[in-house]
Amino acid sequence: MQKRNISIFCTVLAISAFSIWLSGCEKIPQIIDPTMDMPKEEITVGVVLPMSGRHELSFGYPIHRTLQIALREVNDSKLTRTKLKFIYEDDQSTVEGAINAYNKLIHEDNVSIILGPTTSSATKETFPIAQENQVLAISPTSAARGLSAIGDFVFRIALTTDVLVPNGIEKTHAILGYKKVATLYDETDEFSKDGEKAVQEKLAAINVEVLTSETFQGGSDTDFSDQLTRINELNPDAIFVSSLPGEKPEILLKGHELGITAPFIIRTLTDAEVEAAGEAAEGVITFVGWGSNIDTPGNQAFIKEFGNCQPYEECAVGSPGPKPNNYAARAYAALHILAEAIENAVSTDAADIRDALANIRDFDTILGKFSFDENGDAVYDPKILIVKNGELVLFE
């Protein structure tokens, strides 16, 4: 009888141990990868870009290309629970087009997240629409002051004017020692006007005299002879230019033609603009948030991937692919930052992703360690570059 009881006890113990072992085995795949066999939730993101018009080549094409790269990387990652899908809208390089695109994406396509627009003028008008409808909006490129402060659903990736300009002037003034300068800016553009104002404020604070401030109208003016001739006659120590991409090469070419020797200081000069200006770009200084020669996490891999012809476009055999610009780099970082926020959010609701986005701190990007401030504006290290031998390198 005692042996039988012992036998029954051993049998029960063995069955219990096997059950525990089996239960543990069933949990192993969950410990290894809880999403191994689970389909990813799809989130639709609206993208507002200038796919036609004045800003197509400087903003639209490189940002579209870089977002396709970043989208593939995010969706192919085994560490993400979600899959992103884009709906593109062409704002036709106009403020009105951006407003129409926002309204369509929000009220017809029912998106809860929008990337874009690109310019500060368009962002100034579209961010209030996003805030009113509680749609999460991220502009990768707009930089005029105060645009994110309108509400908690709007964010930006570019370093703003109040970060780039004072930092850049302090450091260049310490080395160049300019005492009297001239300025030239686009009076029709929000980014350019805000940049001019910030330049004037900082120069006044360090007692640098502004000899003259000349204006032009972006998209209309193509000859800058009159403005630059007047500037040259005053013999400034430096010339500050606040402008969108289209006019920068023409300004430099005309300055070179007129024999201007004072250094030009231009915010966010790109490799393409340097190439377009040729010799006229030599010695130009720029305040930026990214550069192709900067050693930040993943930067060189991003540049290489951007230059690959396939699957983004057809290229001639043996020809070099295109180079990314500042705007493309910020858009690439923007999508990876958004993906990180989505992964950290408690749900895929716009408000929860907004909260996770606001809490991004020291996230590794091709721009460097990235955070958002209390207004939803970007925080990372600004850079100052100078054109030497046709390339943008660190200004030291």
List the main descriptive attributes of the protein structure presented here.
single chain; five-stranded parallel beta sheet; four-stranded parallel beta sheet; 12 helices
Descriptive report:
The protein has a five-stranded parallel beta sheet, with helices on both faces. A four-stranded parallel beta sheet has the order 7-6-8-9, sandwiched between helices. The protein has 396 residues and is an alpha/beta fold. It is built from twelve helices and 15 strands. Helix content is 44%, strand content 19%.
Outline the fold blueprint.
Elements: H1 2-32, E1 41-49, H2 56-76, E2 82-90, H3 95-107, E3 113-115, H4 120-133, E4 136-139, E5 154-156, H5 161-176, E6 180-186, H6 190-205, E7 209-216, H7 225-233, E8 238-242, H8 248-257, E9 264-266, H9 271-277, E10 285-288, H10 299-307, H11 326-344, H12 350-358, E11 363-365, E12 368-372, E13 378-379, E14 383-388, E15 391-394
Parallel strand pairs: 1-2, 1-3, 3-4, 4-5, 6-7, 6-8, 8-9
Antiparallel strand pairs: 10-14, 11-12, 12-13, 14-15
Helix pairs in contact: 2-11, 3-4, 5-6, 8-9, 11-12
Summarize the structure.
With 396 residues, the chain is of the alpha/beta class.
Multimeric organization: single chain
Structural class designation: alpha/beta
Strand content: 15-25%
Helix content class: 40-55%
| Number of strand segments | 15
Main sheet summary: 5 strands, parallel
